[in-house]
Here is the input.
Amino acid sequence: MSSLKLLAWNVRGIMSSTVCLSSLLKNTDCDICVVSEHKLKKSSLHYLSTIEQGYTCIGKAEDLPNKYHAYHGKGGVAILYKNTLQFSVSEIHDINSERVVGLQIKTKSNGSIFIFGAYLPSDDSIDNYRNELNMLDTLVSYYCNYGSVIVAGDLNASCRTKDRLHSNHCKSDELQKFVKRHDLLFSGGKIKHTGPDYTFITKKTMIEQLRSCEILDEGSISSTSDHLPIIVELLIKK
Here is the structure.
């Protein structure tokens, strides 16, 4: 029996969070890391592969308007994974969204695990949010027929009742429908975890394989982001 460690973190700009992310990758020894809101332009995505030796990165950046002249980009999502993983790893290419990136891991005994990193819209437009969530919904609906599905990242809404005062009600309603439709479980819900609450969603059929789920508390890491990282460990049969 081996394990797979997954880290997810909204870095709020990778250029200011590089040192912290590098430290997290080393200290947690994570196999896969989902990074959201890296704020890189498309021409700078290669930077993510230089943060820590031994990791390969697949990433996306938001399209920017022609008159956008800031040195950094907006949004963005990426997945970093270890080059030494003892599984077959490949990017999922049929994703028609700049806010979702996907990775397929093939294991001998557990079949395929599909990991989707997402950074959903943070503005107040319910139409924009619904369109991106529908894209994610389509991906989960399709790939759950071929293996286990994990969605990680910043979904910019909450499924928890006590968070509704601080989140967009309409977006949270859409997210709750998505979670119920696919029988997903999330940190802060029925998944037991240590630390505070943060966004992480995993397919219910994988819960028996869940060894641990931890949200790293404020002060436990030196961070320039106002979001907390979460690390999950899954048991994988050899």
Q: What stands out?
A: The chain has a mean pLDDT of 84. The CA atoms of residues 114 and 149 lie 5 Å apart. DSSP finds three helices and twelve strands in the chain. The helical segments are 14-28, 126-143, 169-181.
